[in-house]
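TL;DR need structure tokens for one chain.
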Amino acid sequence: MLTDEYRYKILKILESNPQISQRDLARVLGMSLGRVNFCLKALIEKGLLKASNFRNSQNKLAYMYLLTPSGIEEKSRMTAQFLKIKLQEYTALKREIAELREEAKLLEKQRSAA
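>> reply
TL;DR here they are.
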């Protein structure tokens, strides 16, 4: 249920905003609150996150999610992995665009000649 993509997104968001609520995290990710809770528990069990209690400005008990050294290492590994994938997709897309441009030019020449 916790894909590499969501694992990466959660770690990335929590690294920059450790005090984000589960509800806000669910909204940002487009996931249900229950699924976010499940994912956070899984990341804590894997040792990638640590949850700490704190009092927020509304005087309610809340959690702060901190990446552990293993979590930082995992996020770094995943960043490199996703960068490689996205560069491959970008290269393939550039190739496809070039082919479509050539096809469009050819079709325009054929249409003009007719």
